[in-house]
C-alpha cells in the first residue's frame, strides 16, 4: 500500500477510535461522578426536602413497574407476530403488510408515540394517565425489537425439526408449541430483554401518558400516576430550582439508569452471540 | 382437534395484526386531533395553515398567541444538519474500516461496541450533553449561552451514529467478493477498490443509512429538549438557542387545555413530524431493497 493510502486508512481507524473513545468517556464521566452517590439508601429511600436530598426509590419503582407491565403486553404480541410471519404467513400479502407496519413502528419518533398514547389510550379508551397507558404506549415502541429477535430465532430452527414433528402426526399448532417455540426460546428472551432495556430509558412517550413530577405515595393500581427514573433525571436537570445543589443526585440517577439499560443490552448481546455460535456447531 | 388448530391460527393472526392496526390508529388519532385546524371555525381563527407557514413567531402563551412553525422548522433543520455533519464522517469512516480493513477479530469487537451506543437512553445522552458537551462547545466557540444548535446537534450525533454506522456497514458487506477480487486482479490497491468499486456499489445502502439517521435526528426529543436552549427564533447562527418540533410538543403538551387551538396545533406538529419521518423511512427502505437486489444480481 502506498503511503497516502495508509494515511486514508488511518483516518478510518481514527473514526472508530473517536466513536469508541466518546462512548467510553460518557460511561467514565457518569460512573466517576455517580458512583459516590449510589448507596443502599439512595436506591431504597424516597426523595426528601423538595427532592434535594434522599433517594430515588419511587422513580425506580415506577420505571420497573411500567416496564414489567409493558412486557406482559409486548411479549405475546411480538412473539406471535413473528410466529405468524415465519410459520403461517410466508408469501402471503398479509405478511407483507405486517412487515411494513413493523418497519414503520420502528421509525416513528418517540414523541409521536406519546401524542398517540394521549389521544388513544388516555383520552379515547379512557384509561387515564397512568401506568397502564404508559406501558402500552412504550410497548408499541418496542414491539419491533421483540418481533425481529423472535423471527431470527424461528428462522434458525431447522425445517427437519418441523418435518419430524409432522411425521409423528403432530398438527401445525402442536409443532409450533412443542418444537418450534422451545427451540426459539433464547431468541424470544433476547427480544424481551432488549425491549425492556429500550423501554426503561424512554421518556418522551410517557410525558403525557402518566408520569408525575413528584408523588408522596407509590402507585397502587395500574391506573395510578407514577414517578420514573428517566423523567426524574430530566426534571432534576432542567426544572429543579437549584440545579447545582442536586447535581450529585442527577449523576446518581443517571448512573442507575445506565447500569440497568447497559447490563440488559450486554446480556442480550451475549445470549445472541452464544446462540449464533451454537448454530454454527 | 380441528377446532383447536383453527382457534390457534385465528389468535396468532389477530396478535399479528396488532402492528398494522397500531400504525393505522397512530395515523388516524393524530390526524383526528389535528383536523380542527381545517374544519373548526373557532380554531381556524387562531391556528391555520397561513399562520403556520407564513408568519414568523411562535408565542403560544399570551393574550395573542402566535403559532408560526417557521422558527421550529428552522431549529429542527439546524440541529439535524449539525448532527449529520458530525455523525456522517465518523460513522461512514468506521463502517469502511470495519468492513474493509479491520482484521476479523477486531471487527467482532468493534461492531458490538459501537452498536452498544444505541443502548444509551436518550435522556442519558441529553444529561451528558448538558454536563459536558455544552461546556466544550462554550469553550471552543466562546458563546454566550451554553445551550444552542451546535451543542444539541453534537449530542444528537451520538444517537445518529449507531444507526448510520450499522446500515452503512451492512451495505458495504453485501458487496459481492467477486467485484472486489476483479478490481484487485486488475491491479487496483485495496483503498482504490474501496473507493471506486465498493462505495459506489453500496451507495444506495449508504444513502439509506444517512436518511434514516436524518429521520432519527429530526424526531429525537429528550436530547434537544435538554440542550437546545428551547428559544423559538429564526436566525442564521448555529450558536443561537433553537427550539425544535419534537421539543416543542414535549415541553408544551403537558400544559395545554384539551381541544384548545394550542392543543390542536401541537397535534398538527406531530402529524407533520410523523409524515416527514414516514416518507423518509419509505424512501430509505426502497433504496435498501433495490441495492440489495442489484448486488445479488437480480434486476
Short structural description:
The complex is a heterodimer of chains A (281) and B (299). With 281 residues, chain A is mainly α.
Description:
The complex is a heterodimer of chains A (281) and B (299). With 281 residues, chain A is mainly alpha-helical. Chain A has a single domain (59-280), classed as MetI-like (MetI-like fold), CATH 1.10.3720.10. Helices cover 74% and strands 1% of the residues of chain A. Chain A has eleven helices and two strands, in the order H-H-E-E-H-H-H-H-H-H-H-H-H. Chain A has helices spanning 3-34, 40-44, 57-88, 93-107, 110-124, 131-156, 159-167, 172-183, 185-201, 229-238, 247-280; strands spanning 47-48, 53-54. Chain A has a two-stranded antiparallel sheet with strand order 1-2. The mean pLDDT of chain A is 91. In chain B, strand 1 (58-59) and strand 2 (66-67) form a beta hairpin. Chain B has two domains: 1-34; 69-295, MetI-like (MetI-like fold, Orthogonal Bundle), CATH 1.10.3720. In chain B, helix 6 runs parallel beside helix 9 (149-173) and helix 14 packs antiparallel against helix 15 (261-295). Chain B is globular and about 75 Å long. Chain B has 15 helices and two strands. Chain B has helices spanning 2-16, 18-34, 36-39, 41-46, 49-54, 70-101, 104-116, 122-141, 149-173, 177-185, 190-201, 203-219, 222-227, 245-252, 261-295, and strands at residues 58-59, 66-67. In chain B, 75% of the residues lie in helices and 1% in strands. Classes of the chains: A mainly alpha (281), B mainly alpha (299). Chains A and B meet through helix 1, helix 3, helix 4, helix 5 and helix 6 of A and helix 1, helix 2, helix 6, helix 7 and helix 8 of B.
Amino acid at each position: 500500500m502506498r503511503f497516502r493510502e495508509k494515511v486514508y486508512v488511518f483516518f478510518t481507524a481514527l473514526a472508530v477510535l473517536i466513536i469508541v473513545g466518546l462512548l467510553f468517556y460518557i460511561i467514565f464521566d457518569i460512573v466517576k461522578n455517580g458512583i459516590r452517590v449510589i448507596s443502599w439508601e439512595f436506591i431504597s429511600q424516597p426523595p426528601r426536602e423538595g427532592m434535594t436530598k434522599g433517594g430515588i426509590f419511587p422513580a425506580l419503582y415506577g420505571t420497573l413497574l411500567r416496564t414489567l407491565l409493558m412486557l406482559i403486553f409486548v411479549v405475546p404480541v411480538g412473539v406471535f407476530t413473528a410466529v405468524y410471519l415465519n410459520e403461517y404467513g410466508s408469501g402471503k400479502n398479509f405478511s407483507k403488510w405486517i412487515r411494513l407496519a413493523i418497519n414503520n413502528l420502528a421509525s416513528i419518533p418517540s414523541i409521536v408515540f406519546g401524542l398517540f398514547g394521549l389521544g388513544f389510550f388516555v383520552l379515547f379508551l379512557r384509561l387515564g394517565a397512568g401506568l397502564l397507558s404508559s406501558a402500552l404506549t412504550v410497548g408499541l415502541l418496542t414491539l419491533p425489537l421483540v418481533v425481529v429477535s423472535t423471527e431470527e430465532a424461528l428462522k434458525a430452527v431447522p425445517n427437519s425439526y418441523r418435518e419430524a414433528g409432522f411425521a409423528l402426526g403432530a398438527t401445525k399448532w402442536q409443532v409450533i408449541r412443542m418444537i418450534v417455540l422451545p427451540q426459539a426460546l433464547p431468541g424470544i428472551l433476547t427480544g424481551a430483554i432488549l425491549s425492556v432495556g429500550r423501554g426503561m430509558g424512554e421518556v418522551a412517550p410517557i410525558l403525557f401518558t402518566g408520569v408525575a413530577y413528584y408523588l408522596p405515595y407509590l402507585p397502587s393500581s395500574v391506573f395510578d400516576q407514577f414517578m420514573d427514573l428517566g423523567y426524574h433525571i430530566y426534571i432534576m436537570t432542567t426544572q429543579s430550582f437549584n440545579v447545582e445543589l442536586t447535581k450529585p443526585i442527577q449523576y446518581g440517577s443517571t448512573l442507575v439508569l445506565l447500569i440497568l439499560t447497559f447490563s440488559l443490552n450486554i446480556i442480550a448481546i451475549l445470549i445472541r452471540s452464544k446462540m449464533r455460535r451454537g448454530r454454527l456447531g | 382437534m380441528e377446532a383447536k388448530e383453527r382457534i390457534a391460527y385465528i389468535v396468532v393472526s389477530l396478535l399479528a395484526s396488532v402492528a398494522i392496526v397500531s400504525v393505522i390508529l397512530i395515523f388516524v388519532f393524530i390526524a383526528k386531533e389535528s383536523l380542527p385546524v381545517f374544519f373548526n371555525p373557532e380554531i381556524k381563527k387562531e391556528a391555520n395553515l397561513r399562520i403556520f407557514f407564513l408568519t414568523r413567531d411562535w408565542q403560544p402563551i399570551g393574550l395573542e398567541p402566535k403559532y408560526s412553525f417557521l422558527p421550529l422548522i428552522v431549529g429542527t433543520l439546524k440541529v439535524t444538519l449539525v448532527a449529520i455533519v458530525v455523525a456522517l464522517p465518523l460513522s461512514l469512516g468506521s463502517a469502511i474500516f470495519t468492513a474493509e480493513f479491520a482484521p476479523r477479530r477486531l471487527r467482532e469487537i468493534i461492531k458490538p461496541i459501537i452498536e452498544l451506543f444505541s443502548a444509551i437512553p436518550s435522556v442519558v445522552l441529553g444529561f451528558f450533553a448538558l454536563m459536558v458537551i455544552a461546556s466544550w462547545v462554550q469553550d471552543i466557540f466562546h458563546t454566550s449561552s451554553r445551550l444552542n444548535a451546535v451543542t444539541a446537534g453534537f449530542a444528537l450525533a451520538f444517537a445518529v451514529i449507531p444507526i448510520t454506522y450499522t446500515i452503512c456497514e451492512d451495505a458495504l458487506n453485501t458487496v459481492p467478493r467477486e467485484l472486489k477480487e476483479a478490481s484487485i486482479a486488475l491491479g487496483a490497491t485495496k483503498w482504490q477498490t474501496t473507493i471506486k468499486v465498493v462505495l459506489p456499489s453500496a451507495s444506495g445502502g449508504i444513502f439509506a443509512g444517512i436518511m434514516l439517521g436524518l429521520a432519527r435526528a429530526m424526531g429525537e426529543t429528550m436530547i434537544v429538549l435538554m440542550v437546545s436552549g428551547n428559544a423559538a427564533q429564526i436566525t442564521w447562527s448555529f450558536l443561537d438557542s433553537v427550539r425544535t418540533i419534537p421539543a416543542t410538543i414535549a415541553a408544551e403538551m403537558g400544559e395545554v387545555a384539551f381541544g384548545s387551538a394550542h392543543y390542536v396545533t401541537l397535534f398538527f406538529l406531530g402529524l407533520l413530524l410523523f409524515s416527514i419521518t414516514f416518507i423518509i423511512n419509505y424512501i430509505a427502505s426502497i433504496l435498501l431493497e433495490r441495492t440489495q437486489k442489484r448486488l445479488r444480481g437480480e434486476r
